Amino acid sequence: MARFQDLLENYEQYPVLIQVIWVFVVVLFFSILLGILLLKGVRVNLRQKEKFIYSYQKKVETCLIEYVYYEHERNTNDVFEKSFPREIIRGLSSRLKRKIILATMMKLKAEVSGEMTLPIHALFLKTRLFDFAKEKLDSDKWHIVALGIKSLSMFKVNSVSNVVMKHVNHERVEVRREAQLYFVNLFEFEGLDFLTKINAPLSEWDQIQLLAILNKFEDQKITGVGVWLSATNTSVILFALKLCRMYNLFEFKEAILALLIHDDKEVKIEAIKLLSYFQVPEAKERLKEEYHKLNLEERIIFFKMLEKSPVKEDLPFVLKYIQDLNFQINVSALKVLKILDVEKFKNLKKATLDQKSQEIIDFVAYK
């Protein structure tokens, strides 16, 4: 006590600035000490939480597997409620446990197939898990909404489709993606009706995912493509063009031909490629008439179209471009000429031309 009084007296003798510095040092020291203690407490708590999650996840996983195999062996269509695992039912009252249960069920659902999925579906629909997932759709947090849609999609809950539809134009791409996948997973090709309602671009990755899911289904009843080909959203048009190619929808030829004068460069290019794939003669004639309006990339793709299905009527047009300044167009024009009139091609080769032209002709001649 006396020592503390001596320190206090000495402290009072210091100038005010020194006193302030000492106070600051003492406060800083205790703040750091408190921070270290809190950090240690947080780390201990996190370790305990991780340990609990791992342990409980294993318990739930074992419980679910036993339940699934029990119901599968029982081989009955009776209601499942009486045999629901008590451990899981009790865990639904805890937010953390509920999260672990749902994640484990989704993992197991992805690993099993056929009739073995029925007990998991029953457990999801007949317990409060379904209600909790549905409540997520009204959350203010985008990641919770996305998780809710994903779980409802995985367990094939189609009764909430009207609510999910509200999220196809969500500001977050992750939510929009889950909503789109929900409709295709549950309603197959008919689920693509959301395309008439979306405003945001459908990314290339989204299109690939949708096409991959559609490819799993058989006996597709394809409707709505004509509407999507005339959509104001260019990404929807591009997706519709992919569908036409994937399912050989030649009946939409006229709608695709109309896209040759579309304002969007990518739409026009993909339309040319598709018409070339379908070998539509009308496309060539229209593009010949509009050739002066095409940009360089579109012209190159058009000549690739001519290469695929050349006819005698193309010869007068092609002859205009056998010395085009663009190498790709020049080569394509010469290839078409070689196919349609080999004698004229040989005579051209014999003609006196500059070295560069001779090299290009030689390249085509021996290709």
Q: What structural class do the secondary elements suggest?
A: mainly alpha
Number of E-state strands: 0
- End-to-end C-alpha gap: 102 Å
Give the strand content.
under 5%
* Poorly predicted runs of 5 or more residues: none
- How would you name the oligomeric state of the polypeptide chains in this document? single chain
Radius of gyration: 35 Å
The overall pLDDT average reads 84
Residue share in helix: 55-70%
State the order of secondary-structure elements, H for helix, E for strand: HHHHHHHHHHHHHHHHHHHH
Q: Helical region count?
A: 20
What general outline do the C-alpha atoms trace? extended
Q: What composes the largest sheet?
A: none
Number of domains: 4
Description:
- This protein has 367 residues and is mainly alpha-helical.
- It contains 20 helices and no strands.
- Helix 18 crosses helix 19 and helix 18 crosses helix 20.
- It is extended, with a radius of gyration of 35 Å.
- 26% of the residues are buried.
Write the layout of secondary structure elements.
Blueprint: H1 2-13, H2 16-74, H3 86-91, H4 95-111, H5 118-126, H6 129-136, H7 142-154, H8 161-165, H9 173-187, H10 204-214, H11 225-229, H12 234-246, H13 253-258, H14 265-278, H15 281-289, H16 296-308, H17 315-319, H18 327-340, H19 342-350, H20 355-365
Helix pairs in contact: 2-4, 6-7, 7-9, 9-10, 12-14, 14-16, 16-18, 18-19, 18-20
